[in-house]
Structures are given as C-alpha cells and as structure tokens.
Please model this.
Amino acid sequence: MALQIDPAIQKATEEFRAKFSAVRQEVGKAIVGHHDIVDGVLTCMFTGGHALLEGVPGLGKTYLIRSLSEALTLKFSRIQFTPDLMPADIIGTNIINEHPQTGRRGFQFQHGPIFSQIVLADEINRATPKTQSALLEAMQEKAVTAAGT
Model:
C-alpha cells in the first residue's frame, strides 16, 4: 500500500524546502563552514523557538544573527545586558510629548528594542532578575507589560 500525499501539501513542502535552502545559502555567504549551527538556528526560528548560542567571544554569534535578519529582511535588535539595565530599557517607556500646534502635552509609548522581529539578548546572565523577567515574559508570553498596560 503506497502512501498518498495531498498534492497541495507536497507543493507547500517543496516550496518550504526551496526557501529554507535559499536562506541557508544566503546566510552561508557570511557564515562560512558552520552549516550545523546555521541549520540549527534556522530550524529554531522556523519552528517558533528560541536559540541559545554559547561560545567564546569572536566566534561570530552576533554576525550570524545579524546576517540571518538581513537575509530575511527582518528588524534586528541587540540588547547588551548589564547589571544596571532596567526593564524599561528593553521594553520601552512612556515619554511626554508636546503637540506643536496646540501645545498640549500627552504621553506616548516609545518602543524598546524588544519590539523587533529578531532580538539578540547578549549576556543575559549579567542582568538583574527583574530585567531578565521582562525579557522572559516577552519570549514566553509574546507580550510585554509597561506602566501597568
């Protein structure tokens, strides 16, 4: 008994393979010789997961992620975690703006770097628990809380 595959599913699968291969090839132009790492990061991204890249400085982890975002034309942000980084530094905060014509003042939310399609969180272990929690909320729940909203 032969397995019958729906032609629409087969076509979608072939299209995905072609696109995956094209992205792999494009990233491979910048990251040479690390096919397993590139495949792992791409798999993680296409399945909606998060990747943890570990290694000594200078291996090109940031360059890999930046190259991936450029290949897919996605907005990229890098957050350097430090002990003095606050949750508002990554999430964003309300700022007071004055309307030029009326002179009225009002609050406007200014988005932080977490509002990107690809975020590189560098050295998260250096941040305070409160700041780590803000990042983890965005990662897990795909939501942020700022000023009670």
About this structure: Strands lie at 76-80, 92-98, 105-111, 118-122.
